[in-house]
Design brief:
The protein is of the alpha/beta class and about 350 residues long. It is built from 15 helices and eight strands. Helix content is about 55%, strand content about 15%.
């Protein structure tokens, strides 16, 4: 018998902050709340949320995140235990929400996500990525108890984060194709519902590429819904398989080979999806045009990563996962072939 855990409440609208105390009251009789946020997030909306909760009688504390690394995780776990916290609220971008989710997992405390940017699918995911030195490792957890998306706050974030989130959703297209390949060639377990949630989310963002600038707030709502669908796809399978394939392996290999890169996660996996769409034999020109419509990078100059790193990443990405996830990369691509592919696609 399978058990599927999904968020109990999802709120997507403008000016959601005043609803947060009522939402928390509806979810459970929580008493002690820890806000996990960054210094920038504190100024943006952390103070407002703190004041709202305090006025409603909740014992509320804040703790700040600089990195989503192991030492930060241990520090905040210790702090949450000391305060006897029974609800965690992650506010902000990737690292804040990653840490909030991981602390929630280890202490078995529910958590709520309030994103301030939509740069990747972490807002609804059931896993955190924690770094230790050059390595990053995932922690499988539960999805958030609730997700609060304030369209007004998100519309004020830099456009680059929106584009990165679109890139992460577009990448689900090749992730699902990789999963289907593993199903057909390796008899890997496959879930139609999860695959369709991820694949059609990608198609929705692709179709919106030529209209997103006309109605930006509607596109932000569309992206939030797509990212949440992708998170639910992972929760259904208890795996990142519907949302992470060869394009993510390419991204993680870049991070390992060139950790000083400043490209956003969604930018790297989107470039990976462009390359993998060519290998899968689908309309890679459409993918490239879509990336350009969102101002996402399609070559080494735009993403500011050396050509030799991209060549090595493509030729070695199949080794990056310890479980050797089966994808279109299969047993790897020779370096000369990888270089030729990247030249063919004008990535280098």
């Amino acid at each position: 018998m399978e058990e599927i855990t999904l968020p109990r409440k999802i709120v997507i609208k403008e000016n959601t902050l005043p609803d947060i105390p009522r939402l928390i009251e509806e979810l459970n009789n929580f008493k002690s709340i820890l806000l996990v946020l960054g210094l920038k997030t504190r100024e943006l909306l952390g103070k407002k949320i703190f004041d709202l909760l305090t006025k409603k009688g909740y014992v509320t504390n804040c703790i700040y995140v600089e990195k989503s690394d192991h030492s930060t995780l241990e520090r905040i776990k210790k702090h949450a235990r000391m305060l006897n916290v029974d609800l965690i609220i992650g506010i902000g971008g990737g690292k804040n929400i990653d840490i909030a989710r991981a602390v929630s997992h280890f202490l078995e405390i529910p958590y709520i996500n309030i994103p301030t940017i939509l740069s990747h699918d972490g807002i609804a995911s059931d896993r955190s990525v924690i770094s230790e030195g050059k390595k990053k490792y995932p922690i499988l957890a539960n999805p958030p108890l609730a997700i609060v998306v304030d369209l007004k706050i998100l519309s004020q974030a830099p456009y680059r984060f929106f584009a990165s989130g679109c890139g992460d959703v577009i990448a689900k297209k090749t992730a699902v194709l990789d999963w289907q390949l593993a199903r057909d060639e390796k008899n890997e377990d496959y879930n139609d519902l999860a695959a369709n949630l991820a694949y059609f989310s990608a198609d929705t963002i692709i179709k919106n590429a030529n209209t997103h600038k006309k109605n930006y707030k509607s596109s932000i709502k569309l992206l939030a819904e797509a990212l949440i669908n992708c998170g639910m796809a992972m929760s259904i399978t208890k795996s990142s398989r519907p949302c992470s394939g060869s394009e993510h392996m390419f991204c993680h290999t870049i991070d390992f080979l060139f950790p000083e890169n400043k490209a956003l996660h969604g930018e790297k996996v989107a470039l990976g999806a462009y390359i993998m769409s060519f290998l899968h034999g689908i309309d890679f020109v459409e993918i490239r045009d879509t990336l350009l419509s969102y101002n996402l990078p399609v070559n080494y100059q735009q993403i500011n990563i050396p050509q030799e790193i991209l060549i090595k990443a493509l030729s070695t990405a199949h080794k990056i996962r310890s479980d050797r996830r089966y994808t279109i990369l299969k047993n790897g691509i020779k370096k000369d072939n990888a270089e030729n592919i990247l030249k063919r696609l004008e990535v280098i």
